[in-house]
């Protein structure tokens, strides 16, 4: 009997030992996540930019000759007409140049008159064979040379007269003075800017385009322009210019949109908003930055699949937005994307979807 009790005790100890070696595993942690359901549809992608109202043609007005500025008839904001005086420099030295050129012309004209009369006398002597042919040819050549010098002197007189006229700077078209860069009393060099003139006519909106959106703007089918000072109004425009080279400081591309319809009330210098619409329907979804999984080189997001387990999905990123980033491909309609906490998950892990979030639609780029 004692032997049977010892055997039972040994069996109990062995069972207890085996139980300690195979302790039950703790249940897998389920993280609560917020998801967005992909509800993409064909739409027109739109981008918005801040710009400034500018004239299509802006001219820097300058004197063709140097001199001291003695009068300036315009200020910033002055409206001028073609031919109206902008500024005037001291023309004293230019007038002296005109007088000198005129005196030179008069002197050469006198020489030509004498050479012409001399040649006439020598022609009569040659006809009577009193002088040689060589002597007559010299007199003929002297008259031709005098004619050439007279033409040069007259051209110099015309140039001097033009320069004297350049002492008066006039507007070459109607417009508005947008800047003044010289003051009375200042000594100016030829070509130095005195004022900037915005010509009347077409007005444009100048704005900058990020490099990731340059191609989309180039292919845009429509542009809408609005101004902060004129709420509730907008106008159609067309892209006239998109710089082929980026600004070395901002790394953006300069662009200009011309208005194709009348825009009463718009004035130069106003702040404007330019909206560029896609030329064709595109598929694009906007997701928050927290949805991006940054392990590895490829861009990935977590998709919530069957049994609420997550898997990684590689996606193609588009342009950055104020709220996150655009996904151009890699996602299908109806898929649930983890919108926050992606960095804390691993493939195959089970998650708990936050209440009320399972049907939240992803923001379509065309609705921005």
Mean pLDDT over the full residue set: 82
- The helicity comes to 25-40%
Number of strands: 23
Total domain modules: 4
Q: Mind telling me which CATH architecture of the largest domain this is?
A: Beta Barrel
What does this structure look like?
The chain has 368 residues and is of the alpha+beta class. Helix content is 26%, strand content 35%. The protein contains four helices and 23 strands. The longest helix is centred in the first third of the chain and has 36 residues, at 92-127. The chain is elongated and about 130 Å long.
Would you summarize the structure shown here?
The protein is of the alpha+beta class. The protein has helices spanning 2-21, 92-127, 133-165, 214-218; strands at 31-37, 46-55, 58-62, 67-72, 79-80, 85-89, 168-170, 175-180, 187-188, 193-199, 203-210, 222-227, 230-242, 252-259, 271-277, 285-287, 300-304, 310-314, 316-320, 325-329, 336-340, 351-353, 363-364.
Features:
368 residues, alpha+beta, conserved putative lor/sdh protein from methanococcus maripaludis s2 fold, Elongation Factor Tu (Ef-tu), domain 3, 5-stranded mixed β-sheet, 4 helices, 23 strands, 26% helix
Chart the SSEs and their pairings.
Layout: H1 2-21, E1 31-37, E2 46-55, E3 58-62, E4 67-72, E5 79-80, E6 85-89, H2 92-127, H3 133-165, E7 168-170, E8 175-180, E9 187-188, E10 193-199, E11 203-210, H4 214-218, E12 222-227, E13 230-242, E14 252-259, E15 271-277, E16 285-287, E17 300-304, E18 310-314, E19 316-320, E20 325-329, E21 336-340, E22 351-353, E23 363-364
Parallel strand pairs: 1-22
Antiparallel strand pairs: 1-21, 2-11, 2-15, 3-10, 4-6, 4-9, 5-8, 6-7, 8-10, 11-14, 12-13, 12-15, 13-14, 16-20, 16-23, 17-18, 17-21, 19-20
């Amino acid at each position: 009997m004692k032997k049977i009790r010892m055997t039972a005790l040994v069996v109990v100890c062995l069972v207890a030992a085996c139980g300690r070696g195979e302790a039950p595993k703790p249940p897998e942690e389920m993280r609560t996540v917020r998801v967005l359901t992909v509800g993409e549809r064909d739409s027109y992608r739109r981008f918005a930019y801040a710009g400034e109202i500018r004239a299509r043609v802006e001219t820097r007005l300058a004197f063709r000759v140097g001199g001291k500025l003695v009068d300036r008839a315009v200020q910033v904001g002055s409206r001028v007409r073609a031919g109206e005086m902008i500024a005037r420099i001291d023309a004293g030295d230019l007038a002296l140049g005109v007088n000198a050129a005129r005196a030179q012309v008069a002197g050469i004209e006198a020489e030509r008159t004498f050479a012409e009369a001399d040649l006439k006398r020598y022609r009569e002597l040659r006809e009577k064979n009193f002088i040689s042919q060589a002597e007559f040819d010299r007199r003929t050549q002297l008259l031709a040379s005098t004619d050439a010098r007279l033409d040069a002197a007259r051209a110099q007189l015309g140039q001097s007269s033009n320069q004297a006229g350049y002492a008066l700077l006039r507007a070459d078209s109607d417009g508005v003075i947008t800047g003044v860069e010289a003051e009375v009393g200042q000594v100016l060099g030829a070509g130095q800017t005195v004022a900037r003139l915005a010509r009347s006519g077409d007005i444009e909106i100048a704005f900058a385009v990020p490099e990731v959106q340059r191609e989309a703007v180039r292919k845009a089918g429509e542009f809408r322009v609005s101004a902060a000072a004129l709420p509730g109004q907008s106008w159609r425009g067309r892209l006239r210019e998109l710089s082929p080279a980026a600004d070395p400081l901002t790394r953006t591309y300069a662009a200009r949109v011309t208005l194709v319809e009348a825009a009463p009330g718009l004035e130069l210098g106003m702040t404007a908003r330019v909206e560029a619409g896609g030329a064709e329907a595109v598929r694009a979804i906007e997701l928050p930055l927290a949805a991006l999984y940054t392990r590895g080189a490829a861009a990935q997001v977590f998709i919530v699949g069957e049994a609420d387990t997550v898997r990684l999905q590689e996606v193609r990123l588009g342009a950055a937005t104020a709220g996150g980033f655009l996904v151009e491909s890699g996602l299908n309609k109806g898929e649930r994307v983890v919108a926050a906490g992606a960095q804390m998950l691993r493939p195959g892990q089970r998650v708990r979807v936050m209440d009320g979030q399972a049907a939240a639609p992803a923001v379509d780029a065309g609705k921005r």
